[in-house]
């Protein structure tokens, strides 16, 4: 090694520590000094790319890495770094290719194998991801992030038992790791094994884990078991630890501890539905979910010409995994657009190849940002995450063609007080009264074609009642 390299390495190491510690301004000043003294090197490019990524300048990091790899194409560390940057830039295929090259060059590196595994999860190659991540875990059994990634690959590949076992083993190796604890509880919540989820949450508490998300999830599990008083206690603990966490806040609000919010926060919904996407349809079938069929029947009742002539376009708000597209697949639809804020739910919908366009967006933001007009808009089982509906209905009205029709479902609020319009339930869903639905429709400039009561699904043996609402934008207004 040259004298220069000897001098540079400790400096670069120091620089790396500053980047990891978030001291970005200091790191940038030191980087300028190192570069002016010693010129470019693969190590310097690597640390500069890390700095750029931490500064949120991913595109600049990628350009820098492309240039550095042109001069050092066999650098495993640069390839691995570009894989990471490509992952951040939503290019999982590019990331997988770079990570695979890096593993070939440096097969002993567990971090690179784990990176390859994570990028393979993103491109849906779960069995390959399991193989890579299992090796990484074998090499570093106490690395919690490797375990979490392995459990994700196993669960997405359909083996939630193995995912749960991987996390349980990880907790034995690293009992203080809160991310492993929450991941383990989430696996059980997603497979609706609430007693197991609650037991994991209790075990975490008993082992001294103090974490807002763990307590929030424990509260959610207890609430799902009907233990509302205990759940409320947990929510309060969670709120003290993470007063700004949107997931915790929504559940705490639902428990009645905080004043009601008029809709569920997007971050909460993304957490819930991204985690739920792979099991969503199996779960809905087990609940006897009837909404898509009821919406189809209502549509055909009010627009019978759909059956023969189809429609130019249809907008499916909160399309999820695309069940509305499936039940309408025999109707000719010029352009079927789905909008959802969960990327994972949209991935599932994309797999069905029914939608012409799938948009990753929040419903109100999407409606406010488009000038397209639709003859038909659907919102199936999504307004149960909205309390007040006025803003969404006004935005939809403006995006309906004159005479265009909106069909949506909501749960009905049982035992409503005379002044009540909607209420947030303990499991984080809102229910509405028929009077409110009629009032808000009219106030939003829509004509009421139907507010029909029906059973939407079952919880245990109990039917969950709701409304299928059909509204029309007046022809002349
Ligand atoms: C219960 S699922 C229903 C999915 C589908 N409509 C169906 O009936 O099968 C609710 C979906 O709405 C999405 N969602 C909820 N609130 C949303 C919002 N404000 N903006 C966009 N999507 C939303 C969720 O991500 C989820 O995919």
Description:
The protein has 477 residues and is of the alpha/beta class. Among the domains are: 177-259, Alpha Horseshoe (Serine Threonine Protein Phosphatase 5, Tetratricopeptide repeat); 270-472, Vaccinia Virus protein VP39 (Rossmann fold). It has helices at 3-20, 24-38, 42-54, 58-71, 76-88, 92-105, 110-122, 126-139, 144-156, 160-173, 178-190, 194-206, 212-224, 228-241, 246-254, 266-286, 291-302, 305-309, 323-327, 343-351, 363-368, 390-399, 434-443; strands at residues 311-317, 333-340, 357-360, 374-379, 400-412, 422-424, 430-432, 447-459, 462-472. Strands 1, 2, 3, 4, 5, 6, 7, 8 and 9 form a nine-stranded mixed sheet that branches. Helix 22 (390-399) links the parallel strand 4 (374-379) and strand 5 (400-412). Helix 15 crosses helix 16. The chain is globular, with a radius of gyration of 26 Å. Mean pLDDT is 89; it is low at 1-7. The structure holds S-adenosylmethionine. S-adenosylmethionine (SAM) is lined by residues 269, 273, 291-292, 318-320, 323-324, 339-342, 345, 362-363, 380-382, 385.
Classify the fold: give the CATH topology of one domain: Rossmann fold
Biggest beta sheet attributes: 9 strands, mixed
**Strand composition percent:** 5-15%
**CATH hierarchy: architecture of one domain:** 3-Layer(aba) Sandwich
Q: Terminal Cα separation, in Å?
A: 80 Å
CATH-level-4 superfamily name of one domain: Vaccinia Virus protein VP39
Shape: globular
> What small ligands are held by the chains?
S-adenosylmethionine
Q: Count the strands? A: 9
Which structural class do you get from the secondary structure elements? alpha/beta
Unreliable spans: 1-7
Measured as a percent range, the helix fraction is 55-70%
C-alpha Rg (nearest Å): 26 Å
Quickly name the level 1 CATH class of one domain. Answer: Alpha Beta
Q: Given the structure, what is the number of helices?
A: 23
């Amino acid at each position: 090694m040259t004298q220069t390299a000897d001098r540079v390495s400790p400096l670069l190491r120091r620089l790396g520590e500053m980047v990891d510690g978030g001291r970005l301004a200091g790191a940038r000043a030191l980087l300028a000094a190192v570069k002016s003294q010693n010129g470019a090197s693969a190590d310097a490019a690597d640390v500069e790319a890390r700095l750029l990524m931490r500064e949120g300048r991913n595109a600049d990091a990628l350009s820098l890495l492309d240039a550095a790899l042109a001069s050092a194409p066999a650098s495993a560390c640069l390839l691995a770094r570009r894989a990471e940057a490509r992952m951040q830039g939503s290019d999982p295929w590019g990331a997988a290719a770079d990570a695979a090259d890096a593993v070939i060059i440096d097969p002993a590196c567990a971090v690179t194998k784990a990176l390859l595994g994570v990028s393979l999860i993103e491109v849906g190659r779960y069995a390959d991801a399991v193989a890579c991540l299992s090796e990484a875990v074998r090499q570093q059994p106490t690395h919690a992030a490797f375990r979490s990634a392995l459990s994700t690959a196993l669960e997405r590949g359909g083996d939630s038992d193995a995912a749960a076992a991987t996390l349980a083993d990880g907790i034995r190796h690293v009992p203080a790791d809160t991310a492993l604890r929450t991941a383990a509880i989430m696996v059980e919540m997603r497979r609706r094994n609430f007693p197991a989820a609650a037991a994991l949450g209790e075990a975490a508490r008993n082992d001294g884990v103090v974490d807002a998300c763990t307590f929030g999830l424990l509260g959610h599990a207890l609430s799902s078991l009907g233990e509302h008083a205990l759940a409320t206690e947990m929510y309060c603990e969670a709120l003290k630890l993470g007063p700004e966490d949107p997931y915790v806040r929504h559940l705490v609000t639902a428990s009645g501890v905080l004043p009601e919010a008029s809709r569920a926060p997007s971050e909460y919904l993304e957490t819930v539905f991204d985690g739920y996407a792979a099991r969503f349809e199996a779960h809905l079938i087990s609940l006897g979910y009837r909404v898509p069929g009821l919406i189809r029947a209502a549509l055909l009742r009010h627009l019978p010409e759909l059956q023969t002539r189809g429609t130019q376009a249809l907008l499916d708000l909160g399309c999820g995994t695309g069940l509305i597209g499936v039940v309408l697949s025999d109707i000719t639809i010029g352009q079927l657009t789905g909008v959802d804020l969960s990327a994972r739910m949209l991935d599932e919908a994309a797999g069905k190849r029914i939608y012409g366009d799938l948009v990753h967006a929040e419903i109100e933001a999407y409606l406010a940002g488009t000038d397209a007009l639709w003859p038909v808009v659907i919102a199936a089982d999504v307004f149960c995450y909205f309390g007040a509906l006025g803003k969404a209905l006004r935005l939809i009205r403006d995006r309906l063609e004159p005479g265009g029709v909106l069909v949506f479902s909501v749960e009905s609020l049982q035992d409503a007080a005379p002044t009540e319009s909607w209420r947030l339930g303990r499991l984080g869903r809102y229910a509405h009264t028929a009077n409110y639905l009629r009032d808000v429709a009219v106030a939003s400039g829509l004509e009421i074609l139907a507010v029909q009561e029906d059973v939407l699904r079952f919880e245990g043996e109990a039917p969950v009642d709701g409304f299928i609402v059909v509204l029309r934008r007046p022809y002349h207004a």
